[in-house]
Amino acid sequence: HPKALPSDDVAQATRGLGLATETTATVEEALARGLQVAREQGAVLLATGSLFVAAGVRVAFTGQPWWQAPLYALDAAQTGAGLV
Length: 84
Description:
By secondary structure, this protein is mostly helical. It has one domain (7-79). The chain has four helices and no strands. It has helices at 7-16, 27-41, 51-62, 69-79.
């Protein structure tokens, strides 16, 4: 799948689903913050280079609804790629 989405677009789509987002300056800062939130909430943190893989694993692990469809649509609109 294409991975052309800027982080601001991913954050906007995520917020549109009612999920919180945070901006960090570095990948290391983002992972540290993710670990902090996971500890505070007793959650599991999955770090992956692909938002789409993370979303799929989240569904498999938690059984919660699939939420990457809006991101696929936004990605396809920006790249002209078809959805697969």
